């Protein structure tokens, strides 16, 4: 089954803030070149989660894993993103769409915090 990822964040009016997610997606594509990786913003900037899922389907994905680019289990990860995923999945009944947990807490984030502290 061809699997794809959609990295989703809140979105910003500032293009440099939105560019961070695109850079993370670029790195994920380099790390796993056979996998489609798209980005989505919940609001304030395109593409939407619906558009990103459609791009994955157009690329041949049969499974899409939505990865919230959030640290903790707040309202966006518990309510908003699942609702957006449900709406996108309804348009693609053949698609297996799953949502990953938020990024933290995770041991790799602790390593990153220490690495960033060393850079300060």
Strand content: 15-25%
Largest sheet: 4 strands, parallel
Question: How many separate domains?
Answer: 1
Give the strand tally.
Answer: 4
Low-confidence segments, given as residue ranges, are: none
The CATH topology annotation reads as Rossmann fold
Subunit arrangement of the protein: single chain
SSE run: EHEHEHEH
SS element count, helices = 4
What is the residue-averaged pLDDT? 96
Structural class by SSE content: alpha/beta
Terminus-to-terminus distance:
43 Å
Explained architecture:
There is one protein chain. The protein is of the alpha/beta class and 120 residues long. The protein has a single domain, classed as Rossmann fold, CATH 3.40.50.1400. 47% of the residues lie in helices and 19% in strands. The protein is built from four helices and four strands. It has helices at 15-31, 49-58, 75-90, 107-119; strands at residues 3-9, 36-41, 63-68, 96-99. The protein has a four-stranded parallel beta sheet, with helices on both faces. Helix 2 packs across helix 3 (75-90). The termini are far apart. The model has no long low-confidence stretch (mean pLDDT 96).
